[in-house]
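Final report, closing paragraph on structural work. Over the funding period we assembled a curated collection of sequence-structure pairs, and we close with a single example.
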Amino acid sequence: MASSLEARNIRKEYPGTVALDDISLRFDGGRVYALLGKNGAGKSTLVKILAGTVQPTSGEILINGKPITLRSATDAFAQGIATVYQELSLIPELSIAENILLGRLPHKTGALRMIIDWPAARAQAKAVLDEMGVHLDVRRKVAELGVAQQQVVEIAKAMSFKPAVLMLDEPTSALARHETEMLFRIIRRLAKSGVAVIHITHRLQELAQIADVVTVLRDGKFIGSAEFNPATPESIVHMMFGAVVQKQRPADLKAGTEPLLEVQGLSRGDKFRDIDFTLHRGEILGIAGMLGSGRTELLRAIFGADPIDAGRILLDGKAVRPAQAGSPKRMMELGLGFIPENRKEQALVLGQSIRTNLCLASMNRVGWCGLITSAREQRTTLPLIERLAIKVADAGLPIDSLSGGNQQKIVVAKWLNTKPRVILFDEPTRGIDVQAKQHIFQIMWDLSREGIGSIFVSSELEELVEVCHRILIMKSGAIAGEVSPDQITVDELVVRCMETSTVDPRSAA
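Its predicted structure, as stored:
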């Protein structure tokens, strides 16, 4: 097993830009390195080069001081470098064992060599999980697992190659706090076994739990590495961004009293039931809850993306007709916008340009007599790019050429173009840096001043306390309470979300 991975003078150029500029750094076995940097800093490019999927313009990679060549992910695996990306690559309908050993399932010997040796496969997969300290039935389908367990299976798949280096790209972005703690126990166990763990994250509050060393990139340059213990949160943020002003909800930002969106008795199967609440004009209403509490399903139903079994929705005091409530197109026409939690699969068309993606929700405004021209797109999108400070060299470039934070700004901007009355934000800050988050929060506050209502779902509960006027607590598909951000701490909110209710949640305050 290799004891160190080193990058020397790595440079990566793309047409018109330098993604990495003379990067030199080293990762030693037995330690957890937090790789930090704002969106566009070069983290993803560096990881792809170390994973063998992108070739550097110049520079070299060394294992134990010896130069190696990485032309593909297969080469990286052969050299002991494994990568777990933010978008999981599991096959839901296959078992845990099949996913862990995908493409490498053992076969029987002799005349039966074409037949898979299932007992051996299950034993091998179980051995990998046992080594990680994880207890899962390897015969279960991945589709039956929660997000945290799927993340563990993805890591087990990488660990089955016996790597010396494990790179994790935002492994906790979709996890609740208790699930993150479970994953961190596994990561620490792997590090103690001698693996060098490179942990890419935007969640700076996690560093105290997991990082031995913080390594920072900024604008394609290596800024420095520091032992975590002496480093302060302020010094880390300064390394990442220079001077960043942390914004708080303006004290004079008051929600109106006039009802804007009303939800009455909304129910859908076993997803949620008897949901009642009112969103007031200009209000930012947070919804807190653990994963699986029904938050996303509720927002999708309000937007018309999923059907409802009972209840009704009112806008400005007028009931939305059932035919409209079941149609995203009709709800858009009524003034609703929806920012889903998975931007790459549900909010963007990755093969299309930045300009086209900005216009996706407002084609009727951009087009003329059914015709859409680049000139009309340009006139529509330039003000949005300027308003949201989106870092774009050319709006005609593909959307996937942007960093995650700028992609998320595009998702938000396309809805601003529809002149909405209400925007539903489902995990809008997932996988983006501190600076980009501040931009998203500022957008919500600006919308509030314009009288536009927002419903904000986030697994990072401190965001809800910082941004919202009011927070609903959701558990097991029901509203279990309501709190004021000014009268509750983040820790208290976590407890309220996790505790088992002893009363009917429909009667809770």
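The two ends are 57 Å apart (CA to CA). The CA atoms of residues 77 and 372 lie 47 Å apart. We thank the funder for supporting this effort.
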